[in-house]
Amino acid sequence: MSIEIRYGSWEAMAADAKPIRLEVFVQEQGVPPELEMDAMDAKCVHAVAYSAEGQPVGTGRLLPNGHIGRMAVLRSARGTGIGGALLKGLLAQAEQRGHDEVVLHAQLHAAEFYLAHGFKSEGEVFQEAGIPHIEMTYYF
Fold first, then answer.
1. What ranges in the chain are assigned the alpha helix state H?
2. Domain span at residue 33?
3. CATH number, domain with residue 14
4. How far is residue 39's CA from residue 101's CA, in Å, rounded to a whole number?
5. Can you give the pLDDT at residue 45?
6. pTM, to two decimals
7. How many domains does the chain have?
């Protein structure tokens, strides 16, 4: 699948990122919408992946402290490398900003994906929005 990843502010990217996050986190996973959209969105760099047809199919964000979050790929586009491309792009953004490491809270079922991209598991499993997560760190 041919993809393009664009980066920008929440103001610039929300129209494409928000529907993906609502579909994946709120509709599929049952996360309350008031937890999904938060005040940090305005402070983050957002990435949106677009299909060859120009449709938004995945998203993620980089917080000012070097945390990656809100990684989501539409069900129809999973398994095509979009998640990996988004993750690599956000890691590059973090490195350009001078971060020595990147931290994220991975849903437990996605931990293998992050391990395959060089992240290390840290600590114990915890609940976030009613979903088991584990903290993971990538060191540059």
1. 10-21, 33-36, 82-96, 111-116
2. 4-139
3. 3.40.630.30
4. 23
5. 98
6. 0.95
7. 1
